[in-house]
Amino acid sequence: MELHIAKDPAQLSENVAAWISNYILEVLQTQERFTFVLSGGNTPKQLYSLLAKAPYNMVIPWEKIHFFWGDERDVAFEDERNNARMAFESLLDKVSVNPENIHVMRTDIGPEESAAEYEKILKSYFGKDDTTFDLVLLGMGDDGHTLSLFPGLPIVHEKKAWVKSFFLEAQNMYRITLTAPVVNKAACVLFLTTGANKAITLKSVIEGTFDAEKYPSQLIRPEEGELHWFVDEAAAGAMEI
């Protein structure tokens, strides 16, 4: 695990945009496509906006990138809570991506059907490979969750399925999510975390004993790939560094 600390969220986004751009270009020197899992939530918005502007909108070969999502709320695409909508508005509508390379988690069909369809897509991409995605971008909630892997829920213990749906009572909605097994086969996983409100949880996730039931973010441990935590000083405030 590699820890990267920036002064504030703005500097963090700048650092991550540069890192991702360099990583994409490096990987594409040895293969024809790059598979990228996007994260929802508020933290990546600033990052996506940066990637949509110069120099990244011109330097990155967007036509070679295939986009996926880590999780989705079962709400219509038009709903402001929809993760895909946020990514389209801040990034995908502003760069030269091939539409056929964008794979949203559908919410115009039932959640179980959507999860099954998404797993089928992933198996068509990675079913015969030892690794899955080239890059998975994740966030971490105040409670230590990542993706839709929430503390104390059965989804935390999923070992086989790559994509699952379930009803989240706390939010009164269905969620569709990648699971730890498929993410842990990725070549690189990057957590993006900001804010003093996450400092104690971040310390527990990175420096504490393993307790995935309480802190599901601890489940993300790539088998062969890289793991990077990009955090700001506020989020890192409780850590012993």
TrEMBL record:
Matching SUPFAM superfamilies, A to Z? NagB/RpiA/CoA transferase-like (SSF100950)
Q: Which GO terms describe its biological process?
A: carbohydrate metabolic process; pentose-phosphate shunt
Q: Name one GO molecular function term.
A: 6-phosphogluconolactonase activity
- Give the keywords, sorted: Hydrolase
User: EC number(s) per UniProt?
Assistant: 3.1.1.31
As its record notes, the protein acts as a catalyst of: 6-phospho-D-glucono-1,5-lactone + H2O = 6-phospho-D-gluconate + H(+)
Lineage top rank: taxon? Bacteria
Please state the span of the N-terminal signal peptide per the UniProt entry.
none
- Domain named Glucosamine/galactosamine-6-phosphate isomerase: residues: 8-229
Please give the pathway this protein is involved in. Answer: Carbohydrate degradation; pentose phosphate pathway; D-ribulose 5-phosphate from D-glucose 6-phosphate (oxidative stage): step 2/3
Q: What does this protein do?
A: Hydrolysis of 6-phosphogluconolactone to 6-phosphogluconate.
Instruction: Enumerate the PANTHER family for this protein.
Output: 6-PHOSPHOGLUCONOLACTONASE (PTHR11054)
Name of the featured protein:
6-phosphogluconolactonase
What lineage is this protein's organism placed in?
A: Bacteria, Pseudomonadati, Bacteroidota, Chitinophagia, Chitinophagales
